[in-house]
Design a protein that fits this description.
Helices cover 34% and strands 24% of the residues. The chain is α/β, with parallel strands linked by helices and 237 residues long. Strand 2, helix 2 and strand 3 form a beta-alpha-beta unit. Helix 7 packs parallel to helix 8.
């Protein structure tokens, strides 16, 4: 069997009310050469069961079940079994524009770069026109220190998160996520950008990020949230 070009990796934890909408947005892509890897991170609800049911219906879906280890471990373990040359990460309560994979894939191949990124919409509800066709233009940007700093200050590119990007697997394997931490993507994505040397960027909002007020980084303060200081230190280094 031919390997897919893209592996879409979805960590799954307590998202039974969102998972079907999420997978529908992936399956309805205009780009078809991809696989979906669900990593059930010991979810206590029916999320893992729903993933198994979806895998029975679609031959491009794989499900991994693991004890709860956190998003970093889930993503790392998903990458380990992935068959695609390119990686795209989706949170299980988010949704994709139907043309995001096509646009990101065209951006990396036409511009001969190893990472492409788009903008996103962060709301509690998907806008009615989110799935409508968008004219998408990419620019290439060399990852000098000044340009990385400018991305850091430019909120529309969400440079510090793993979602909304297409990344070559070799970069991820060189800089995997640090397990046992939160804000783990904040710490590592700048290293991906630096390793890529040049990236393709569009400000078209092709990713929908659901604002979950009970999410890992939105809850009342705990000592674990001090990991954000570790993440900032990693970025500075």
């Amino acid at each position: 069997m031919k390997n897919p070009e893209i592996s879409v990796i979805v960590p799954v934890y307590k998202c039974e009310e969102y998972i079907e909408a999420c997978v529908d947005s992936i399956l309805n892509q205009t780009f078809s050469d991809f696989e979906i890897i669900f990593v059930d991170d010991g979810s206590p609800d029916n999320s893992g069961k729903l993933c198994d049911e979806l895998a029975e219906k679609h031959n491009n879906i794989t499900v991994i079940h693991q004890k709860n280890q956190g998003q970093a471990a889930a993503r790392n373990n998903g990458v380990k079994v992935s068959r695609g040359e390119w990686l795209h990460f989706v949170d299980c309560d988010d949704s994709l524009h139907p043309e995001i994979l096509e646009n990101l894939y065209n951006a990396v191949t036409k511009n001969n770069v190893s990472l492409a990124m788009c903008s996103a919409i962060q709301e509690e509800k998907i806008p009615e026109d989110f799935n409508s066709h968008k004219e998408v233009n990419f620019n290439t940007l060399k990852m000098t220190e000044d340009n990385i700093l400018n991305l850091c200050k430019n909120e529309k590119y969400y440079y510090w998160v793993v979602w909304g990007k297409l990344i070559h697997k070799k970069i991820y394997e060189k800089y995997p996520l640090t397990e046992g931490r939160i804000y783990e993507d904040n710490a590592i994505v700048c290293k991906w950008l630096h390793e890529a040397k040049t990236v393709a960027i569009t400000d078209a909002p092709l990713y929908f990020y659901y604002i979950n007020t009970t999410g890992t980084t939105k809850k009342a303060f705990t000592e674990k949230q001090l990991d954000v200081l570790w993440a900032f230190k990693e970025q500075i280094d």
